[in-house]
Design a protein that fits this description.
401 residues, alpha/beta, six-stranded mixed sheet, five-stranded parallel sheet, 16 helices, 13 strands, globular
């Protein structure tokens, strides 16, 4: 398979003179990467940072100024690349971008970055209808770094570039705590939830502890004293601001009654630990916390690998009302082979630890099953494959066919 990084897909599209809408969580390195890449482009560049107060106010009050500025620059150059950072802060600019792409499609290209799709959706603005290709951007992935170096540190602090690169653990802890605080202040308060900030803060902590488990909206609502609809809307905010990823339930079973509640996973282990207050907790390999963080890490790497390689596989979880549970079901489409994936943080899990996978294989004759774990070499037992997780993260997609 071809090697990919977070950046390679963006670079490929820009080399083909396509405009790009790049969406990723704050701190994932979008702006840094784009600014470095602009130095490699042959065309002239125009950079707008909407985090700058004066730029934000100017374009918010008069979005059409963008068109005037761009067209003036096009009088002096054959090709122009316009980089607008944090486009969701002034979503009305997308209409101007749309017009400029149509009018100057061979001469003017845009790189738009954002850390939230919520305001774009909320405002019902023009999302460019394919004129700017949407690309997801993530923290570091296992393909970009040597994951075995300080793996426990990665499990604890995650792979946001600033947390990963910083060698002082105390500074990393403060960075991640500040990140969570800034998120509350800048994202939630901007969503007109100022009066509910304490409730949302409580919800965030509960949601973090519910990470990776089928969500019971009513139970969470009772815990924090709101309605279940409020809880659902809060989860939607987390989805739209790219803090979590929803994993729906796999329901394609004719014999078993299945639980249909979704699971949610926070996008980064460091942020998850910041929200649960466990950044300073000692991480022991045999502990429940280690297993929980290992699962969150693996699920996020499956999501990254799927999107960075453009596979578009469907990712589900599986659980019956009788308690049989499988962490991930990976499937190309309804008619393709489902791959059941269990995630175990042990170094050498045995068949007895995952024998419930056989029930799934018996019910779905063409299905395949595997375990992603910390083994050093792959092995097979009773038709179930046990993979070292780095190798297995790639192999599971091959099993789908």
């Amino acid at each position: 398979m071809r090697y990919y990084t977070r950046e390679s897909k963006v670079k490929t599209l820009l080399q083909k003179h396509k405009s790009v809408l790049l969406l990723g969580p704050r701190g994932s390195g979008k702006s840094t990467y784009i600014l470095e890449m602009l130095n490699e482009l042959s065309s002239e560049t125009f950079i707008i940072n909407l985090l700058e107060t004066d730029s934000f106010r100017k374009y918010l009050q008069n979005p059409h100024i963008l068109r005037q500025e761009v067209e003036y620059k096009l009088k002096e150059t054959k090709s122009l690349t316009v980089f607008i950072d944090e486009i969701q802060k002034v979503p009305q600019l997308l209409d101007e971008v749309h017009l400029l792409i149509e009018k100057h499609k061979n001469r003017c290209h845009f790189i738009l970055t954002g850390s939230s799709a919520r305001k774009l959706k909320k405002e019902h603005v023009n999302l460019l209808a394919g004129r700017a290709l949407k690309v997801s951007f993530f923290p570091f992935s296992f393909e970009e770094i040597d994951i075995q170096v300080n793996f426990e540190r990665i499990l604890k602090f995650g792979m946001l570039p600033e947390a990963y690169i910083e060698s002082d653990d105390e500074l990393v802890v403060e960075y991640l705590k500040t990140y969570a605080g800034i998120y509350l202040k800048e994202e939630i308060m901007q969503e007109t939830l100022k009066r509910d900030i304490q409730i949302f803060s409580s919800f965030l902590e509960v949601a973090a502890f519910a990470n990776g488990t089928p969500v019971n909206y009513l139970k969470i609502a009772r815990q924090i004293g709101v309605s279940d609809q409020t809880v659902k809307s809060h989860y939607q905010i987390l989805e739209d601001t790219l803090m979590i990823r929803k994993i729906p339930a796999w329901t394609f079973s004719v014999r078993k009654q299945l639980q249909k509640a979704a699971k949610y996973y926070f996008f980064d282990n460091g942020i998850l630990n910041a929200l649960t207050g466990e950044l300073r907790v000692e991480l022991k390999k045999s502990s429940y916390l280690y297993g929980r963080l290992f699962e969150n890490f693996i699920v996020n790497e499956i999501i990254k690998y799927n999107e960075l390689h453009g596979f578009d596989y469907h990712i589900y979880h599986y659980r019956t009302n009788h308690g049989s549970e499988i962490d991930i079901i990976l499937q190309r489409n309804f008619n393709s082979v489902p791959v059941a994936i269990e995630i175990k943080s042990a170094e050498m899990p045995s068949y007895s630890n995952v024998k419930h996978l056989n029930g799934f294989l018996l019910e779905h004759k063409n299905a395949k099953a595997c375990v992603l774990c910390r083994a050093t070499e792959p092995y097979e037992e009773n038709g179930i494959f046990f993979y070292p997780f780095e190798y297995g993260l790639k192999k599971v997609f091959e099993l789908c066919g």
